């Protein structure tokens, strides 16, 4: 099994799961009357990358998909899967067979009914090697999924079957305790084959080349535009529960811009940074969120040979004062990392201890410039390098640039190290990271559900997201046993995940930086947002504007 999570850049944690990790919702008071104008104006810190669930990899894309599409379940305000297209579910065969009865009144925006075959087609398309879906591995719990994805078995061998129009059967390779939570994630939603066939490779690249079965329809998106609208979907089966007529979204890379728009009453929400947070923390509109996403510095061993040396990697880590970064630079409530897996990703089933506390490797996230210099000298002597001139690739958002400048300054305190910052648009950075086209990069990961495996398998040797070149047979073995051998032994499984995190950090396979807080101003008359800190963050289905 591979990685379960979502890419996020330093400022894109606008962000994304599916899990009972502090999921929360705005309180909805039934005594409030709805405002005459049910229109929400929202800001995003990055452009929309894709409206194709098989191609999406980032938080914003999945947020749009969650609001414009629908699957078997939707997460409620407590992060618990609740029936959506499924009306009932039966689990048999020791947890390996799921039988779903589907509602018969769901339609696509092109007028076609949503049926069981739409799920079969969607899952087969995602796993089809020709689709090249980076997230296909999420489906590997389904029988024959991995073999299908690797071209060793036909699509028809996949363990999903439509028993008539409104009955769906799924066969798993093993019991998966969090499977229902995965089913609430957009990757597992259905697709309308007629629309995909009609638009071909253009499907999901613009609002006009996508069909919808969720609460809203994506409109006014060209594929590159920095504004778009989520309009109420008149063909949605549960449209009576949807109050907003439209959500107008606008990309503002700078919080200065979005903050000014908010104060001018042109938006209903804005992310905050630094001084803005200090100025507004007592406001009735202030909301602080701590999603389960971590920010890190990745070193590409395939591009810089010196990064193959563990002492060089450890030196870079020890040169960065994470506490200074979050307190003096970001100043937004972000928390210095204790490891790669952030807080909120689960607790020891026996002792109750939080994972990030139990797996904490102090030296792997500490600041010690003297030791860093010593280790670098030792490492460069081993590699034969006299100096390191490296490029740090980052996105063009405020927080990303602030972090990059701090990291640059920190690393250049090491003798014979020169760091050049390369700033590119967010979508471009994702592409470069996916292709391994970087030397150093600021990368982020947001969970899909609250379990440590959701982070750890990013760094499995054959993970599509592990582009650094770091590999560890011990790390791979621990994850493989935890998922495929100890699924019904929660304490043993937990122990192996803790060991795996320690292997990753002791070897400095990546350099964790911080868990990003997302403080925002949100108009107090905006009610009913369902927010999930451990996955796709915003579900606007039940949102409304109060008078």
TrEMBL record:
Residues covered by the Solute-binding protein family domain: 81-465
Protein's membrane topology: Lipid-anchor
Phylogenetic placement of the source organism: Bacteria, Bacillati, Bacillota, Bacilli, Lactobacillales
Main location: membrane
CDD domains cross-referenced by the UniProt entry: PBP2_OppA
Family as reported in the entry's similarity comment: Belongs to the bacterial solute-binding protein 5 family.
Pfam families linked: SBP_bac_5
Record keywords, A-Z: Signal, Transport
Signal peptide: 1-19
Compartment annotation: Cell membrane
Protein name per Swiss-Prot or TrEMBL: Peptide ABC transporter substrate-binding protein
PANTHER family cross-referenced by the UniProt entry: PERIPLASMIC BINDING COMPONENT OF ABC TRANSPORTER, PERIPLASMIC OLIGOPEPTIDE-BINDING PROTEIN-RELATED
This protein's record includes keyword Nucleotide-binding: no
């Amino acid at each position: 099994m591979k990685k379960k999570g979502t890419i996020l850049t330093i400022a894109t944690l606008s962000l994304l799961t599916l899990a009972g990790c502090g999921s929360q919702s705005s309180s909805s008071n039934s005594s409030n009357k709805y405002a005459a104008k049910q229109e929400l104006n929202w800001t995003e810190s990055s452009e929309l990358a894709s409206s194709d669930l098989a191609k999406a990899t980032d938080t914003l894309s999945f947020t749009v998909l969650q609001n414009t599409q629908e699957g078997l379940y939707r997460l409620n305000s407590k992060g618990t899967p609740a029936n959506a297209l499924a009306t009932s579910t039966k689990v048999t065969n020791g947890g390996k067979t799921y039988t779903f009865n589907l509602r018969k009144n769901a339609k696509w925006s092109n007028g076609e009914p949503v049926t069981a075959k739409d799920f079969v087609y969607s899952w087969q398309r995602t796993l089809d090697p020709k689709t090249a879906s980076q997230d296909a591995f999420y489906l590997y719990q389904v029988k024959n999924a991995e073999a299908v994805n690797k071209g060793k078995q036909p699509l028809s061998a996949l363990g999903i079957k439509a028993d008539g129009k409104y009955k769906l059967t799924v066969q798993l390779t093993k019991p998966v305790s969090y499977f229902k939570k995965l089913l609430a994630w957009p990757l597992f939603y259905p697709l309308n084959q007629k629309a995909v066939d009609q638009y071909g490779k253009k499907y999901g690249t613009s609002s006009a080349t996508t069909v919808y079965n969720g609460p809203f329809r994506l409109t006014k998106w060209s594929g590159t535009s920095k504004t778009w609208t989520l309009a109420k979907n008149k063909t949605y089966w549960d449209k009576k529960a949807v109050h907003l007529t439209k959500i107008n979204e606008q990309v503002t890379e700078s919080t200065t811009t979005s903050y000014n728009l908010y104060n001018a009453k042109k938006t209903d929400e804005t992310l905050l940074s630094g001084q803005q947070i200090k100025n507004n923390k007592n406001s009735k509109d202030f909301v602080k969120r701590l999603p389960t996403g971590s920010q890190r510095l990745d070193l590409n061993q395939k591009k810089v040979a010196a990064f193959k040396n563990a002492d060089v990697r450890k030196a870079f880590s020890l040169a960065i004062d994470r506490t200074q970064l979050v307190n003096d630079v970001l100043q937004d409530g972000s928390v210095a990392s204790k490891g790669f897996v952030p807080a909120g990703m689960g607790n020891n089933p026996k002792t109750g201890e939080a994972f990030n506390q139990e797996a904490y490797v102090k030296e792997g996230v500490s600041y010690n410039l003297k030791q860093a210099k010593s280790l670098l000298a030792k490492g460069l002597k081993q590699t034969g390098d006299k100096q390191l001139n490296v490029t740090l690739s980052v996105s063009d958002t405020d927080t990303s640039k602030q972090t990059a400048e701090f990291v640059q300054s920190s690393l250049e305190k090491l003798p014979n190290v020169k760091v050049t910052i390369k700033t590119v648009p967010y979508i471009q950075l994702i592409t470069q990271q996916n292709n391994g086209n970087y030397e150093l990069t600021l990368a982020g990961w947001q969970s899909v559900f609250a379990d440590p495996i959701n982070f750890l398998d990013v760094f499995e040797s054959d993970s599509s997201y592990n582009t650094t070149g770091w590999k560890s047979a011990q790390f791979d073995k621990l994850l493989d046993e935890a998922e495929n051998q100890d699924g019904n032994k929660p304490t043993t499984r937990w122990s192996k995940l803790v060991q795996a995190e320690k292997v990753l950090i002791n070897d400095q396979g990546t350099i964790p930086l911080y868990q990003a807080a997302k403080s925002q101003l949100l108009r107090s008359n905006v009610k009913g947002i369902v927010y999930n800190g451990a996955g796709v963050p915003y579900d606007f289905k039940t949102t409304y504007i109060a008078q």
